[in-house]
Each structure stands twice: as structure tokens, then as C-alpha cells.
Amino acid sequence: MSSSWKDGWIPEVLAAAVTLAYSLLLNAVIPEPLHILTNVLAAVGLIWLALHTGATVADVGLERDSMLDGARLGVRVALPIVGVVLVAIAVPFSRDVFVSDAAATASLGPALFDILVRIPLGTVIPEELIFRGALMGLMLRRHSPIRAATYSSLLFGVWHVLPTLSSLDAEAADVVSNSTLEQTGAILLTVFATGAIGFVFAWLRLRSRSVVAPIIAHLAFNVTATAGGRVARQVFNASGR
């Protein structure tokens, strides 16, 4: 095979396949205590794959000159994100989504670990490096920005299918009944919602030319949801009212 394969579709499909295969391993094989380490290694590995199959440092959003712009945009967007999440937690209709999260029900020590370690190092930074870094970097070589954002966001939605199934199995009595129809609806809603959020993160990445912007926005969302859900659970005694 000639080196021209790097200019075609193979690198982006390979990276997408590796990402989805890793998602299966992460949720079905790898023990949870190893998730932070393996997510970091997976992100580094996919960035390496992107850089060695045709993408540049700028393509994956890691160019040093763009990081300050990314930080500025990320902070500007993080503030309204925090506000929207807090409003959603304050409204009874949407509060249960946050107060039923495992981190919201954990004791103080594990909750602090989630906020300070698991969320940034085990979730946000690896996911942004994978989806808005490696995958978008490869897709932007052959596709328009809107298509690259759409494709990577769809993969981001699919990435959340297996965690959603696990969550439904663990929390069916509290959140949704165990019927196939309702589980399917919950999965489709998750794919749509996370895909839409992923598209916003992709826009931030494109606007700032840096993966730093979506990292900050993603971190603001997850930390606020976790911490706010914990506070709401204590204040409302998990009643949802």
C-alpha cells in the first residue's frame, strides 16, 4: 500500500473504528478503577495515530499559538453553561436527571474525587482530545468543517450508548421503567442530546482553532452538573420537588 493512503478515508475510518472498539472495551471489559488511566492512554494514542496518519498539530487543535484564544472563548462560554445547568437543576421537571447521578449520591470523599480527578482527567480531557482533537483533525482534511463537526458529534453520541445502557440497568427503578421501548427512547435521546452538545463543542473547537475551548466548556458543564446535583439532592432530600 502506497503512502497516499494517508490522504484518503482510511485514517479517519481507522480512528473512528478504534474509538468505538475502545468504548466497548471500556464499558464491558476494563475494570472501573482503571478507566482514568486507560482513557488518558486512549486519548494520547488516538492523537498519536492522527499525527502519524496525516494530521498536523494545528489539525488536532493543539497548536500553541491558538491555545490562548481557546481559553478565552472557553471561559466566555462556560459562564452561560453554568447558568443553564443551574436553572435546569432548580426546575423540578429536569432536576431528577442531576440528583440521580451516581456522583450526586456519593459520599463527600468520592464526590470530590469525581469533581477534581475523574471528570477532568478521566472524562473531559480524554473525550475532547479524542473527538474534537484526533477525529475532527483527521476529518477536516477531507470534509468541510460542518461535516467534520457532524460526523465527530455523531460518534460522540454513539460513544454514550453503552454508558446509558449501564445506567438504565442500575437506575431503572428511579428513572425509567425497564421496558424495551422506554430503554430505546432513552438511548436515542442520549445519542441526540450528547451529539448536539458535541456539535457545540466542535463549533468552539473550530471557532478558536483550539481544543482548549471545548475542554473548558465541557468541564464547566460536567462539574456544575455533578456539584449542583449533589447540592440539590441534599436541599430537596432527593425528592425532585
Describe the structure.
With 241 residues, this protein is mainly alpha-helical. The protein has one domain. The protein is built from 10 helices and no strands. α6 (108-139) packs antiparallel against α10. It is globular and about 60 Å long. 35% of the residues are buried. The mean pLDDT is 87.
Q: Could you give a quick summary of the protein structure above?
A:
With 241 residues, the chain is mostly helical. The protein is built from ten helices and no strands. It has one domain (9-236).
List the helices and strands and how they pair.
Blueprint: H1 10-28, H2 35-51, H3 64-90, H4 92-99, H5 102-105, H6 108-139, H7 145-159, H8 161-171, H9 180-208, H10 212-236
Helix pairs in contact: 1-2, 1-6, 2-6, 3-9, 3-10, 4-10, 6-7, 6-9, 6-10, 7-9, 8-9, 9-10
